[in-house]
Amino acid sequence: MTQMLSTKEVAKFLGINEKMVYTLISEKGLPASKVTGKWIFPRHLVEQWIESSTVNYPQNHNVLPPYEGLLVIAGSNDILLEKTLSIFNSRHSGHLAVFGSLGSVGGISALRRSLCHMATSHLLQENGHEYNFDFLQRQFERMPVVVNFCKRDQGILLQKGNPRNITAVKDLGKPGIRIVNRSLSTGTRLLFDRELKRAGMAGERLAGYDREVNRHMDVGLEILGGRADAGPGIRPVASLLGLAFMPLRQERYDLLVTRERFFDQGIQYFLSLLHEKAFVRAAEQLEGYDVSKSGQMIFPYEPEATEVELKS
What we know:
Blueprint: E1 4-6, H1 7-14, H2 18-28, E2 33-35, E3 38-42, H3 43-52, E4 70-75, H4 79-91, E5 96-101, H5 103-112, E6 118-121, H6 133-139, E7 145-158, E8 181-182, H7 187-198, E9 212-213, H8 216-224, E10 230-234, H9 235-241, E11 244-257, H10 265-273, H11 277-284, E12 289-290, E13 297-299, E14 308-309
Parallel strand pairs: 4-5, 4-6, 8-9
Antiparallel strand pairs: 1-3, 2-3, 6-11, 7-10, 7-11, 7-12, 7-13, 11-14
Helix pairs in contact: 4-11
């Protein structure tokens, strides 16, 4: 079972006073939940928070074995990615692509630890415009290659017809509104918490804020089943399930590959799919994707600030 720390215990664990713990929650995103008026801290998420914030991370000397047909991808989940994995597996006999849904932070950690060939991530930086680079620079001595997979619409999934009349993030604080959330290791949660802060809202005061699910589709299914009124997620889920959608922004969702493995056969096979008609058709069948830059190398070339606010 997950070990929970009290405020006093997490202060001791971090070597700081208890007052500083509250500052880290509000200003630095220290993972925490409030239960019966008291803060509790999942130890594994606190450790992950420390790891993701570490600068000058020591280089990992463990390496993946030579590529022999198994392509391992880990990180942020996505519906178009799942369809692309299916195309890959049907197109290339003798090769198998598998995915581990770990969230963007977990994907970057898995890539650094050589547990996967490729990671997926959409972590919004503090400047509110770029994605992923700050997080990668903190964990890698040598920056991985960054290739755009797609752009997609991020926002709030709502019940069909929006019966609760939720038109802004602040409306999530209305009496009786229940939400469902994503885990702290995901870029979606990072964006959601950022938007709550911009609206002057404390997440722990929202009913359901501490109820976390693993995938975008899981958020949609909770709302479709009437167990929640709203939750952070992507437009394609809303479209597939017939839910209402409140847009927040269009985000860049990237593929990350270490330079040492970039030319592995499986990786090149996968990246080549992003330029094929089958991939474009798959995206066109789903509302909320922009694949005009898919397959474009974002780094080591000059990054392009592609973040734009969406209008309702």
